[in-house]
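It is worth pausing here to work through a concrete case rather than discussing structure prediction in the abstract. The textbook approach is simple: state the sequence, then state the predicted structure, then interpret. We follow exactly that order.
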Amino acid sequence: MGTSVLHRSWVSPLTAISFVVVAVTGILMVFHVRLPGIQGAHQWMGVVFALSGLFHLALNWRPLLACCRSKAAAVAVALGLVTLVVAVSVPSHDGDHGDRHRSGQRFGHGRR
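Step two, the predicted structure:
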């Protein structure tokens, strides 16, 4: 890409490092491991991961499209969608159990 700001030499490592941080902090949060700053690190590195992921996609668009033409890619997309549906369908175990929605409370605000 010549003199472009987007360059694999920093985008790929940033994407990988932010992925690792988001993955580790997310797993710790799922198992209710409470460490100072873990939620903030997870949220901010999630933003970094999303942005660097978009840059990574922009830099690797043609190879990604070539890869997506295979039957294995279609299976991977299907498995990803099934996983997403299951993850959204399973109730949370954080003590909420959907009570907020039954009581009319939305998005962390008080009762209406």
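Step three, interpretation. The two ends are 53 Å apart (CA to CA). Confidence is low (pLDDT under 50) at residues 97-103.
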